[in-house]
Design goal:
Elements lengths: L2 H7 L12 H13 L4 H12 L3 E5 L4 E4 L12 H14 L9 E3 L5 E9 L2 E9 L4 H8 L2 H12 L8 H10 L15 H10 L9 E7 L4 H9 L6 E3 L2 E6 L3 H16 L4 E5 L6 H20 L6 E3 L5 H5 L4 H12 L6 H12 L4 H8 L3 H15 L6 H22 L1
Parallel strand pairs: 9-10
Antiparallel strand pairs: 1-2, 1-5, 3-4, 4-5, 6-8, 6-9, 7-8
Length: about 400
Amino acid sequence: MSRSGELAAARPRLAVAAAPPPAAFAQWLAELAFGGAGWPELLAAVAERTGAACRLVAETGELLADSDGAGGPGRDAPPDDVRRALAAGRAGGAGPGGVPATVRCADGWTGRAVAVGAGPRRIGALLVAEPVSAGQWELAAAATTALLIEAVRHESPPPVVRDAPTVLRALRDGPGGPAGSGSPPRLGEAELLRAGAAHGWRLDQPHAVAGIAYTGEQQRRWASALSWLDRPVLAEGRLAWTLLHGDVEREVTRLRARLDQIVGPGQVRVVAGPLVTGPARTAASFRDADRLLRLLLRSSDGRPELPFGQAGLAQVLLAVPDERLRWFVHRHLGPIAHRDDLLRTLDCWLATGGSRQAVSERLHLHRNSVGYRVGLIKRLLGVDPLDPQTVAVLRTALVARELLAASEAG
């Protein structure tokens, strides 16, 4: 006989077969849980007595078990919906008007939420398929103790403490299923939240990825400098990654200043991706931080920092697919796309508001040479680079070109 069959056969008998009082039903389920029944069998028993399908979801929305045992992807619930339902339950046992709050799962299934928790121990919510009568609601509420008993068994093994580099790599990959053929499964959102918290990262709060690059030659000093930081990092040769909370721009400056003290000034570049909330969004901050770091390393202006909030046009263009950027660059810079001398001249011309003297000093060119180049740019592009509308287009095209070059450099 299978394990589930053995447990079903060993179920304690319920004294009242039809419509049992909630207290008797709660006691019966508790005995079932103490006898070794897991969440799926407990939910099946609740579904049998209420006549409604049931699901158990964590506070993060992750599906823990359901009454039909189907499981599978696409059955999780939005974390915000679950938290709102739990907040309503803690405030008064139900939502507005005494009606239990509704949670809609990713597959469209909807259920009324019963908070499952006691004191500091909280599992999540028991969802009962709509429509839900008052009697069904009372029976579902009576099931929470048994579900908590089983939760103790789930929590009894000591948690696996993952090292910070492993957590950061997992966040860069993003939560989900298998990472690919031959790769280990990716960590789920709930596990990433727990693993991040072990290292002081509140992934359910706004945070940003910081990218750090070392341009010096003393690798041992660089490795030592990273070890002296007040936060864990993922070190990858001359690059390193970590997470920031709070005032990200101030944290970027503080991080760079700390490293400069150890490796010497001017040898560290630091960027930050956009602020995101939730481990599912951290990978996006990683991607943008990576591109900004490569953009900063290509820059000739000597800037040591580039937080996302100071990235100007790049903040918008980072969200544009590369193929769209290539089209835009070709459309507006195509005739001079392979002329670095003309591109540098155009960049300086736009940055100085069309000052021949300023461009001459920046590029170490004779004023006449500047005039010749600007004239050539006008003829090749067929536009006036000082026309206000044209300036905006050309500036955007130049930044898009730099972003593409930074991506290809990786």
